[in-house]
Amino acid sequence: MGVVFCLVMIAFMLVHPSITTSAARDALRVWGLDVVPSLFPYMVLCRLVASRLQKTGIPAGPAVAVLGLLGGSPSGAATLSGFSKTLNTHQVRLLAALTGTISPMFLLNTVKIWSGDPRLCRLLLVSHLYGAAFALLCMDFLTRGQKKSACQGASVSSGNPITESVQSILSVGGCIVFFSVLSAGLQALLPGMGRLPGALLHAALEISGGLHSLCTLPLAPVTRAVCMAAASGFSGLSILMQNHLFLRPLGLSFSDLLFFALLRAFGAGVMMAFLFS
């Protein structure tokens, strides 16, 4: 089925090259002009702090939680991978559920540029962090009685914060372009989808372009806010795939990360609806 879908998308790209190139061009513009300037320096600093703290003997759990939430994805997954030798499997699952988030700098700066609404961005950040905490509490409840064995995963960190951040930001850019093109293709193949479902589909695949689309739609404020909160909590398949690169050696499957993302999306959406009420 996956091969058939890929062949269909290849055929679509050959038949409709203008749609493909337009989607890729828009995705590169979002990445180069909005995502990289705000996210890359922040990512380097978060990784630099993490590399220094690893040498001090500070408890891994609190360090990963704070640095993961500050750095966002995939920095949080990379930080968890770096500290994994001092954690057990239960702690790894809890921290993976907590730290699979979006960078606060992205929500407070990049989304503010798109929406022009600082208050919305602050509420998005509060809802986003609540969704992460909700996912952690749910996983703690669901896995409380399970055996807590030592984690044997190997870190995939290179040890250089700038090099790691360059690799991560390029990975982010590649995923933004690929999933934006995929979203444009699916919307073209399903012309009756509508703008809001199309934007939500885009967000489910790739969060940067999806949130950009939601910011530009003529929606009621509460509808826009709840959709953006739930979408950012889910974070998109693009980010989940990036996080899986770091967390797969720790024994976490992609379905695990998908379940964590759904918990975060539910918690963030509910909190945003509560804040608006």
Order of helices and strands: HHHHHHHHHHHHH
What is the total tally of β strands?
A: 0
The structure class reads mainly alpha
Give the DSSP E fraction (strand runs of 2 or more residues).
under 5%
Describe it for me?
It is globular and about 55 Å long. It contains 13 helices and no strands. Helix content is 79%, strand content 0%. The protein is mostly helical and 277 residues long. It has helices at residues 2-15, 17-53, 60-71, 75-83, 89-99, 104-115, 118-142, 161-189, 195-205, 207-216, 221-234, 236-247, 254-276.
Indicate the topology.
Elements: H1 2-15, H2 17-53, H3 60-71, H4 75-83, H5 89-99, H6 104-115, H7 118-142, H8 161-189, H9 195-205, H10 207-216, H11 221-234, H12 236-247, H13 254-276
Provide the descriptors you would attach to this structure in a database record:
single chain; mainly alpha; globular; 277 residues; 13 helices
In short:
The chain is mostly helical. It is built from 13 helices and no strands.
